[in-house]
Amino acid sequence: MTIKQIYEIKNNQLIINLPEEFKNQQKVLVTIDEIKNNKAEKIALLKLAANDPQFLADMEEVNSDFNLIDNEIL
After folding, report:
1. Calpha distance 44→42 (Å, rounded)
2. What is the pLDDT of residues 38-70, one digit of tens each?
3. How many angstroms separate the CA atoms of 18 and 25, rounded?
4. CB distance 21 to 1 below 8 Å
5. Most exposed among 25, 27, 43, 54, judged by the fewest C-beta atoms under 10 Å?
6. Cβ contacts of residue 63 below 8 Å, gap of 6+?
7. How does pLDDT run across 4-36, given as a tens digit for each residue?
């Protein structure tokens, strides 16, 4: 069984309550990955993407792929 969940860190500690399915387990793998939560930076990157030629070309390609099936009758 695999569980992915985001936890809050308090006082540089992480407390994880394991589900009942893990009750008899002897070992689990814990991987810690930093989550950067800079909303302003993300919005700035999205604004840049709106004018990025490669991004716009990719979006046009995706749209043209779907144009073929948009006209199909289901």
Report:
1. 5
2. 888 888 888 998 899 999 999 999 998 888 777
3. 10
4. yes
5. 27
6. none
7. 888 888 999 999 989 898 888 999 999 988 887
- CA 16 to CA 18: how far, in whole Å? 6
Q: What pLDDT was estimated at residue 74? A: 61
**Residues 43, 34 contacting (CB under 8 angstroms):** no
DSSP result, 26-46: S------------HHHHHHHH
Task: List the Cα angle 60/62/41 in 5-degree steps.
Answer: 75
For residue 62, give the H/E element and its range: helix 53-70
Residue 1's contacts (CB-CB under 8 Å, 6 or more residues apart) are: 19, 21, 22
Calculate the CA dihedral of residues 45, 48, 54, 57 and round it to 10 degrees.
110
